[in-house]
Amino acid sequence: MSVDLDFLRWDDTLTEDQRMIRDAVREFVDTDVLPNIGRWCDEGTFPEQLIPKIADLGLLGVTVPEEYGGAGLDYHTYGLITQELERGDSGLRSFASVQSSLCMFPILKYGSEEQKRKFLPDMAAGKKIGCFGLTEPEGGSNPATPRTTAKKTANGWVLNGEKMWITNGGISALAVVWAQTGNSPADIRGFIVERGTKGFSTPEIKKKIGLRASITSSIVLEDCEVGDDALMPGTDCGLKAPLSCLSMARFGIAYGGIGAAIGCLEEALDFTSTRKPFTKTLDHYQLIQAKLANVFTDICLAQGLAYRVGALLNDGKWIPEHISMAKRNNVRMALEAARTCREILGANGITYEFHAGRHETNLISVDTYEGTYDIHTLILGRHLTGKAAFD
Ligand code: TGC
Ligand code: FAD
User: Fold this and answer.
1) Residue 57 belongs to a domain with what CATH number?
2) Among 74, 90, 124, where does a domain finish?
3) Residues 144 and 106 in one domain
4) What number does the ligand 1 atom closest to the CA of 168 have?
5) Which phi and psi angles does 130 have, rounded to 5°?
6) Tell me, what's the pLDDT at 309?
7) Residue 235 beta carbon below 6 angstroms from any ligand 1 atom
8) 370 lines ligand 1 (CB under 6 A)
9) Minimum-distance ligand 1 atom for the alpha carbon of 379
């Protein structure tokens, strides 16, 4: 493919380090992921063998300070990394998002010094994988009324309940679990539950139509006894603690959508330059050019939105609604781009030999998790009107 897709010259705004990191992840995806991802999806397996390389590249705990084993980098760099990972596959980006934003972030922000030292360096090195248990079987959009409980005992806590649709669950050494310790959303607290704790299990959820190269599990807690040291002390702010973790992950997902859409457009450009169902290759035809132009424009608009939100995060000037807008818009943009590009591929589009169909089925989940498209619509609606439509 000869055309430069960096149409608005975003590269000019990057530091040399940012470009280098972005290019290293791109190369990793081209070499280690794209040649194999169709097979992994077909088999429904997550490529655990890539974890050491992902860790060596510094992709776990990107914004976590170096003293805890992280890379100590800024949010825009983190976003560029998730963008490149999702150009490969949403499952790969999900793995990194959950480890970094949903597990290392809460431990860093709400954990004790002892918890940080115990878990973060091993998590950055990929030696311990984490998962994040907020959603429950009865419904994920409203996490304010969890049925999972944590009851205080003389020696610690006893947890009971079930979490559902948990990314990385089956390969995790630890789970950040959100449980009700009292009667109101203010009493929701975060616990670190380690694998091996009696009463803790993570049955896998199979037969998924998307995100097949990602592990999705339940977390079952049956009279699961943990010590006082499992409670993250900073989570005494109730629901705000898990919601703040979601903001970090949603931010990375907004960049990830750009990557998935770029992957689809690159493939469609290659395909249309050689495919010749009539007398000329497909890229000569106006309907095809219109589709390519629309996808290209949508990617450029999504970059403007996400990269600006990245700058606001770096400057500490963000509000959660910025991130909601970026996640909502960019994932839906990517889903539509994948659909259009899959259509351009004709019958080839429905196989794992090509990428657009796989991205499309992945993005259905991405559009659903971390707050559905509709929940982010309502968050923006509340911002505009002052009226919450989700109580
Ligand atoms: P509300 O009671 O108003 O807010 C409570 C406090 O939290 C603050 N807050 C946030 N802070 C940071 N980031 C956010 N996104 C925040 N949202 C709210 C808020 O300011 C308030 O603070 P304070 O100081 O005033 O007490 O809560 P709400 O009414 O705003 O929440 C309602 C609603 C529906 C928006 C929220 O419950 C929601 O976002 N629901 C969606 C649930 C969700 O996204 N679940 C995701 C589960 S994890 C997952 O899907 C992982 S997939 C990852 C992968 O595989 O990549
Ligand atoms: P529900 O909350 O039951 O919503 C059903 C439908 O109703 C949706 O269309 C929703 O938009 C709509 N709706 C809800 N409320 C309103 C309203 N007030 N007004 C109008 N419409 C409304 N969760 C975790 O905690 N950790 C994870 O690691 C994790 N990983 C996931 C991985 C995958 C592959 C998937 C698919 C999900 C994952 N989730 C995870 C769960 C995810 O966050 C939830 O699926 C999501 O929050 C939506 O919850 P729900 O599926 O229960 O839908």
Assistant:
1) 1.10.540.10
2) 124
3) no
4) 55
5) -115, 160
6) 98
7) no
8) yes
9) 35
Do the domain assignments include residue 5? no
Q: Are 213 and 46 in contact (CB under 8 A)?
A: yes
Would you say how long the chain is, in residues? 391
Full domain range(s) for residue 58: 10-124
125's tokens: 């090195």
**168 within domain boundaries:** yes
* Cβ–ligand 1 contact at 85 (below 6 Å): no
What pLDDT does residue 391 have?
Answer: 83
Q: What is the pLDDT of residues 296-316, one digit of tens each?
A: 999 999 999 999 999 999 999
- pLDDT per position as a tens digit, 3-37: 999 999 999 999 999 999 999 999 999 999 999 99
Q: Is residue 190 part of a domain?
A: yes
Return the active site residues.
370
**Alpha-helix runs per DSSP H in 4-143:** 16-28, 37-43, 51-56, 75-88, 90-97, 105-110, 113-124
Are 157 and 88 in a shared domain? Answer: no
369 part of a folded domain: yes
Same domain, 137 and 263: no
Whole-structure pTM value: 0.98
Position in ligand 1 atom list of the atom nearest CA 239? 5
Contact yes or no for 273/265 (Cβ under 8 A): no
197-220: b (≥16 Cβ within 10 Å) or e? beebbbeeeeebebbbbbbbbbbb
What is the whole-number distance in angstroms between the Cα of residue 323 and the centre of ligand 2? 17
Are 88 and 225 in a shared domain? no
Check if 94 has its Cβ closer than 6 Å to any atom of ligand 1: yes
Residue 114 and residue 33 share a domain: yes
**Number of domains present in the structure of the chain:** 3
Nearest to 59 by CA among 100, 120, 11, 16: 100
Structure confidence by residue, pLDDT tens digits, 198-252 = 999 999 999 999 999 999 999 999 999 999 999 999 999 999 999 999 999 999 9
Q: Which two tokens stand for residue 234?
A: 């900073």
Ligand 2 pocket at CB < 6 A:
98, 131-135, 139-141, 165-167, 211, 216, 365, 368-370, 372, 374-375, 389-390
Residue with tokens 């990314």, as numbered in its chain: 167
The enclosing domain of 185 has a CATH number of 2.40.110.10
